[in-house]
Predict the structure.
Amino acid sequence: MQSVHIYGAGFVGITLAGHFLRVSKYEVFLVEKEVGVIEKIRNGNIPVYEPGLKQLIHDGIVSGRLHLQSLDEVTSVYIAFICISTPKNVVQNPIISLAQELVPVLAPGASIFIRSTCVIGSSQELSNILERLNRDDVDVYNAPERTAEGVAMQELIELPQLLGARDSSSLSKGSGILQDLGFGVIVSGSWSEVEMAKLLCNVWRDYSFAFANEAALLGERHFIDVLKVISIANYKYKRAGIPQPGPVGGPCLSKDTYLLVNQEVLSNSLFLHSRELNEHYLEAIVGEILSFAKEGAFSRILLAGIAFKGQPPTNDFRNSLGMSLLESLPKIFPSIEIAYWDELIDLPDYKRVFSLERFLSNQSKTLIIICNYNPKFVQNLESLSNLLLDSNQLFQIFDAAANISKAPLTQVSRVFGAPRGISC
């Protein structure tokens, strides 16, 4: 049976392992330097939430097709996918460091696919190092991950794969490997073209959100309902397509701009200004929330949605507004009870609310901060509208995500991006 090694058991690596188990006949080795992570996966504790993934991993382990290994357990590698995390401030490229560790176990004619997001030039740098180590028999490819959290298993089937290679003959070999592993359409190019294409996709999204967020900040200053303005601008006008404003978090959009332009150090970069604006927007929201909380003299604060996004659901809270508030609010308001609601995230060090109705039944003055748009939470809140209305204004709702307008909830006290005091 042919085998493939995946380095990194985080979101990128473990979803890729699930995909290979589902659509190919390959033996899959999932390699992770953190032994504790391997043990958690072996015991059924999957680090990321993706529909169907947990069963795929379980079945792979039971059938013997999925092997969980630490770095020092690897013996011979024919096909390697590098899926490790890369920091936004690259001093020493972790992809290059890992690849150099692989050299002793690479079989003759092996193939390395860089799946991690990387700075432009990483594939060429790796190829140069292999050549200096007399391993120019190893083919280097760039095949970046481009899935969205919450729908990754679906998108691994649907999305075309980008593939960068040294030359046409190498490209043909790499395309064949990806097709054998169950990938569909392959869009090909040089190493640097593919590296840049991956980064541009996320930087473009970050920029488009910055556009909407600057509009929201402008509306805040002029007491204009920007949510309504965007809705009017977009209505049956295909050349608009302005997104909703809101906090921009997660592991990708908050990092990829820096990976794209860090080598250039362009102080006048439109990309960098957009990223900085989104970071400023998050700070502005936090500032407004703190002011709102101080003025209200609340006994409790409930944070709704700790993940960096609510739709599609994910358990990833990296760079999220909810997690930022959950960590900071207890220090700022030590006498106020701070709790959170999130259907997928369990944080033992913080108070978690499972029943919204039971929580709201306590007649204490409560501030509810909606940190992301999660339809399930909004529906629960909708079903308790009468309780909220009949509470003698004990409950205040601050919509930090500016997305509650998707639902007919009338009890919202403050929507960031709309005039102060407006109800959606």
Remarks:
- The radius of gyration is 24 Å.
- Confidence is low (pLDDT under 50) at residues 420-424.
- The longest strand covers residues 106-114.
- The first helix runs from residue 11 to 23.
